[in-house]
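Dear Dr. L.,

I hope this message finds you well. Following up on our conversation about the binding site, I have prepared a predicted three-dimensional model of the protein together with zinc ion. For your records, I am including the exact sequence and ligand specification that went into the calculation, followed by the C-alpha cells. Please feel free to forward this to your student if that is useful.
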Amino acid sequence: MLIDFHTHIFPEAIAERSIAALEAGIRREQGADYRKGEALTCRPATLEGLLQSMTRSHVDKSICLPIATKPSQTATINRYAESVRSERALSFGTVHPADPEAEQVLDDLKQRGFRGIKLHLQFQQYDIDSPEVLNILKKCEQLGLLVVFHAGADIGLPPPVYTSPQKIRHALDFVRGDNLIAAHLGGWAQWDDVEACLVGTPVYLDTAYIAQFLAPEQCRRIIRSHGAEKILFGSDSPWEDPADTLRYLESLNLTAEEMALITHQNALRLLGA
Ligand SMILES: [Zn+2]
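The resulting structure of the complex is given below.
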C-alpha cells in the first residue's frame, strides 16, 4: 500500500495559471534555464490529473495540501478542500497566520471533519516560532489537527527562510510536536541543519521533493537516526512524480519494515484509519 502525504491540486479553472505562476517564481530564483523544457509529469495539477498519476504510480491514497497566501482566500480554499474527500484523495484545510479569526477557522475545520491543515510560511511570511504561528500550532494540538508545513528554503521564493530547522526546533519549546509534519525531510536544502537540530525530536518528516537534491547517503542517515516511525512518504506532486519518489526511497536499501512504516503504516496511524 502506498499513501502520498504531500500533493497539490487546484480547481480546474485556475490550475494551469497557478502552476505557470509558480514556475515563473522558480525561474526567477534559479535562472531562466532552470529545468527548461522538462514537463511536469503529473499535469494537469487538478484532482483528475492527480487521480490519473496515482493510478500510473500505484498510489492508493493522496493527501492534498492547499495554501492560502492571503487571509481573504481562506474560506474559498477550504470550501474547495472540503469537496476533495474520498477513498483515494483527501484534502487538508488552510489557515493564514495574519487572519485575526485563525482560531475560529481551525475550530470550523475541526467541526467539518478535516484531519489537518497545511502552512506554507515562505508564502505567508511568518516565522514558525512567531506568536501568530505558535497560536495556530497550540490550537491544532488542542484540537488534534495535524499540521503539515513547508520546511527549509523554497526553490521559487527568496530568503529569509521562515521555517528553518533552527526555528522549528525553537517552536518545539512551546508545543509537543507529535502532530507536526515538516515537509522536505525537515528543511529543503538545509539537511545539515536538520541533522543538527531536528533529528530525534517528535516531529514527523516527509520525503517530498528531495529525490533530485539530497544525496541518498544523507537521506538514509537522517531516516535511520530520526526513526522510520516518524517518516512519511510524500512526493510533492505535481512537482515530483510519486514513482520517482518511490524509486529514490527504494535506492536507500532500508528494511522492509522501515519501508512499510514510511509508505503507509505511519500515515494510516496519523489519519486514524
Ligand atoms: Zn509542496
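In brief: The mean pLDDT is 94.

With kind regards,
A. P.
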